[in-house]
Amino acid sequence: MVIVDTALAKRAAEGNPVRVALIGAGYMGRGVALQIISSFPGMRLVAVSNRTVSEAERAYREAGVTDAREVTTLAQLDESIAAGIPAFTSDAHLLCQAQGVEAVIEATGEIEFGAHVVLRAIEHRKHIVLMNAELDATVGPILKVYADRAGIILTNADGDQPGVVMNLLRFVKSIGCKPLLAGNIKGLQDRFRNPTTQAGFAAKYNQKPKLITAFADGTKISMEMAITANATGFRVNTRGMHGYKCAHVTEALKLFTMDHFAGGGIVDYVLGAEPGPGVFVLGYDDNPIKRQYMNYFKMGDGPLYVFYVPYHLPHLETPLTVARAVLFGDAAVAPLGGPVCDVITMAKRELKAGETLDGIGAYMTYGTIENSDVCQRDRLLPMGLSEGCVLKRDIAVDEAIGYDDIVLPEGRLADRLRAEQTKFFAP
What we know:
Structural class: alpha/beta
Number of strands: 16
Number of helices: 16
Strand content: 15-25%
Shape: globular
Helix content: 40-55%
Distance between the termini: 36 Å
């Protein structure tokens, strides 16, 4: 957002940078730290936490910061922030409580841990930026309820696909077109990929095989588009979306017809298209004079038009989300209300009674998107809650797993939040 740079420049000139803390110093978290430190003079990364504390220190070190110090108590953290000394710790809850923190970036990708952290941050009225699609897609709507009650912003991040597509969708609306499809551009989709098949690619890019598997087997795109659905009210036409193959995203105009939108707007994707890995929006305008202008601008005959962004740059844009939340009270991506779409748990292989599910990006299951009313009706198990569940019966390949098929682990906050979400948004 162009307006953000001016506002941040003002905070820098006043010597009052936006103070942000980062939870999770993995690959993307370290990228966020580098970006804030190197490119955002109107923002200060006051603290980083990671359960392996050496990784939190590494985030500062790789960004060229040599004076960061470890803290273990809230008093030490508050003292460091006041003194302008960067701090790192293994205790994420300290960052949520610190007086000098205006916003928290949650970048762990962990659902149970992330749920605890976000609730603690809400309790202490910190704006929250989620780089955690898994958490958002599973219990984002109820977390938004808590955030609204506390008077703070909870938002997914600019730069990742939901943020990029929402910014594009807002632009399409601003020029008078009605958005009918919010879409993702995907290069690979194979629901049977696993950490073994993805090990080589993961090693090449210094990533974890389970993370790469979640991208390849369709779980991640389902999470991303469920977040987008919840932020727009758009549904899916079919379980898993259509995912039409094409050479270029502009071919979406031939693949999606007005019949696809008979029930309203949808989320979907195209597979193997250039320019990847971007996003697109299909917008509608049947005004005959406007259609003449759009044709003149090489946008086609209409009334359906394709708008696209050819890239997404997650960690580079995340600080913009922080600024939007703190300085303007604006969310990049947040649920409108109750869940519209969910990500359900599907069997990758034949599963046997007594087996314990291994969760996202592993060997046993993959996640796929489905409309939330179907999920509620059929009592389908959210993929984000699948890890650790014990099967009560045999499951066939590509069969959806339901709550009646499993025994949940005991005592998980994420399960309680999910149950609360279901009750709160019940018809």
